[in-house]
Amino acid sequence: MEDFHKRIAGLVLRVLALAATLTAAIIMGTSKESANFYALSFEVNYNDTPAFKYFVIVNAVVSVYSFLALFVPSKSSFWRLIVALDLLVTLMLTSCISAALAIAQVGKNGNSITRWLPICNQVPDYCDRVTIALAAGFAAAILYLMVLAASAHAALDEDDCC
Amino acid sequence: MAHENGMKPDDQVEPVLVSEPREWLLLTLRVIAFLATASATLVMALNKETKKLVVATIGSTPITATLTAKFQHSPAFVFFVIANANASFHNLLMIAVELGGRKFDHKGLRLLFVAVLDMLTVVLASSGDGAATFMADLGKRGNSHARWNKICDKFDHYCSQGGGALIASYVGLGLLTIISILSTMRLVRLKPLGYQRAPVP
């Protein structure tokens, strides 16, 4: 593959990952709903769950990083740092999506052993928004795995020593 | 100046690793990472606590029931066990490849496979850790907004054993990250696939 094609592929993947992380952060960050549960009225917010807060923070940070990494010129000495940062960012994305999925699964199905009731019946709109944000976050994790492969492949061709 | 950068020299001699030194640092790190992830798997898989608890009070007689907390009750912990089991199996396989796989090298792809598999394993291990961490936090502090009670005040041995497994797997995750970076750097250093600039004639 020529260098130019490799660079274009890496850039396209990174732009897609930027879009996915931004979508996930924004949709999760604006998820809140008020519901009346018998006589109690309670409001559900993404902020109440530490896993969802972590998800929003990680996706916001990763989208800023993706945006900045788009402007690194090729053949500069930054690329090895970019590859290492890409690995760290992929780790953070996979850990935040799996944490959010774990808590969202409890919210949807409950846990009969610990007597945790599912909350999706009371706040269905909140659950739908969270589902969309999680889908975007999952796509972001997979896209970043491909970005990591592309940037490692591009960076390994550059210099001949570490 | 015929070749572009990075093009594999198909019409030349196959790149052969003349002298590949045995990497003792990488091997030591892999052994420690294997011990960490394997102990995390075992400690969480054997995590079980049975307790007699008062579940209700009728009049003045308390009704007790025997409740068991097992790791299988939470899908996040099941995923944690599976991910750490995969990571420890991967470490074992890579130790075996490192020690005895020198002859199974087809066109230098062995080092590339090792580097790629290392990256995939570290990603899997990090996702297992993330899920289990937040599920453990939910069990420890509960979630007052969703009316989910904490369970660690009743099953404290279960919680502390789970916490120990989490710490071991974080150690394994950190070591796996270092191992992944080292094995990727090894690709650059030893250049098995022709990852190099074209020779200047």
TrEMBL record, chain A:
This protein's UniProt keywords: Cell membrane, Membrane, Transmembrane, Transmembrane helix
Localization terms from the record: Cell membrane
Domain named Casparian strip membrane protein: residues: 7-143
Membrane topology: Multi-pass membrane protein
Keyword Protease among UniProt keywords: no
Transmembrane segments annotated in the record for this chain: 12-31, 51-72, 84-107, 132-156
InterPro entries: CASP/CASPL, CASP_dom, CASPL
GO cellular component labels: plasma membrane
Coiled coil regions, renumbered to chain: none
One Pfam assignment: CASP_dom
Subunit structure, interactors included: Homodimer and heterodimers.
Family recorded in the similarity comment: Belongs to the Casparian strip membrane proteins (CASP) family.
Name this polypeptide is given: CASP-like protein
From TrEMBL, chain B:
Membrane topology: Multi-pass membrane protein
GO CC terms, sorted: plasma membrane
InterPro entries tied to this protein: CASP/CASPL, CASP_dom, CASPL
Compartments in which it is found: Cell membrane
TM segment ranges: 24-46, 53-71, 77-97, 109-128, 167-188
Domain of life: Eukaryota
Start and end residues of each Casparian strip membrane protein domain: 22-172
Entry keywords, A to Z: Cell membrane, Membrane, Transmembrane, Transmembrane helix
Pfam family, one: CASP_dom
Database matches in NCBIfam families: A_tha_TIGR01569 (TIGR01569)
Oligomer and partners: Homodimer and heterodimers.
Family: Belongs to the Casparian strip membrane proteins (CASP) family.
Protein name in the entry: CASP-like protein
Organism for this UniProt entry: Trapa natans
